[in-house]
Amino acid sequence: MKKTIKFTPAKLASLKHPIGKHPDKWYDSGCTGLSVFVMPQPSLTKVFYASWSVVTYGADGKQKRSGRYKKLDRVGVTNKFDRPENANFRGKVGYNDTGIPLTPKAAKKQRNNRAGYHYPHHLQVINENRKKAAMDRHGITDPDNPYNLKKKKVSAQPAVRSNRSSYWSLPMAPSPRKKEYHYYSSDPAPPPEPVTYILPYEPKSRKPVYKSTGKFPKIDEAIAAAKKYRDEQ
Fold first, then answer.
1. Quick one: average pLDDT of 195-204?
2. Disulfide-capable partner of 135 in 36, 52, 140, 225 (CB 3.0 to 4.6 Å)?
3. 49-57 mean pLDDT
4. Backbone angles phi, psi at 125, to 5 degrees
5. pTM score above 0.70
6. How far is CA 216 from CA 4, 14, 73, in A?
7. Domain-wise residue ranges, the chain
């Protein structure tokens, strides 16, 4: 016999766990296809399942229906990330470690918190209170004059415009340059002293002079014979 009740938190909490090996199956009267399995003792869990039927036809043409179930989640926990064992490092359930909501419940809660924060009016009120406290602390009465400088009040009457300048003076005359005098000695210049050279100047010979090193004896003999022949001439 199919057991049906209206799924409410109070009704689901009142379901008792059976004694035996098979769970009790309860179906929601207000939602087609939703069921809950009450696990037998000593278990204390109740699990939501999606249920539907599959129609098959036999060889004789008779219609046959068979039930199918898909596990959703435990009763009282809408999502696995709402469980305490899956909390982030701050201890909040439904959020990851960076604060991103992982469940619809957490997303709705975050959306409501943001809607309750009146931005930028709320931030503006905070800034105005901080500004007023700082001005009182430093004795500032005028925010446009934080150093309390004495300023002349601008007259409300507009000034009379004129093309003539209110200040006039003679043009500046060029200042005379100071004369500078350079005095020199009246003694005649001394005569130039003669330069005495120790060695007479000899122009350098541009012709290379061959020096025998003994590495090339044939060349040394040919050069010596050529010099001897030149001297005999």
1. 71
2. 140
3. 85
4. -65, -40
5. no
6. 127, 126, 109
7. 3-74, 79-141
Tracing tokens 């469940």 back to the chain, one arrives at: 103
Task: With beta carbons less than 8 A apart as the criterion, state whether 69 and 35 touch.
Answer: yes
Residues in the chain: 233
Radius of gyration over alpha carbons of the chain, in Å?
57
- Which pLDDT score is estimated for 32? 80
What's the Cα-to-Cα distance from 138 to each of 131, 144, 146, rounded to whole Å? 11, 14, 9
Segment (H or E) for 107: helix 104-116
What string of DSSP letters covers 198-224? SS---PPP-SPPP---SS-HHHHHHHH
Beta bridge partners of 53: 67
Q: Percent of the chain, pLDDT > 90?
A: 2
Q: End-to-end distance of the chain based on CA atoms, in angstroms?
A: 152
On the CB side of 214, how many CA atoms lie within 13 Å of its CA?
A: 0
How far apart CA 36 and CA 7 sit, in angstroms, is 9
Q: Largest alpha-carbon pair distance within the chain?
A: 153
Q: Are 84 and 104 in contact (CB under 8 A)?
A: no
What's the distance, CA 76 to chain centroid? 42
User: Tokens for 116?
Assistant: 């309750």
Alpha-carbon distance of 199 to 205, in angstroms, equals 17
Structure tokens at 215: 């590495």
Q: Is residue 220's pLDDT more than 80?
A: yes
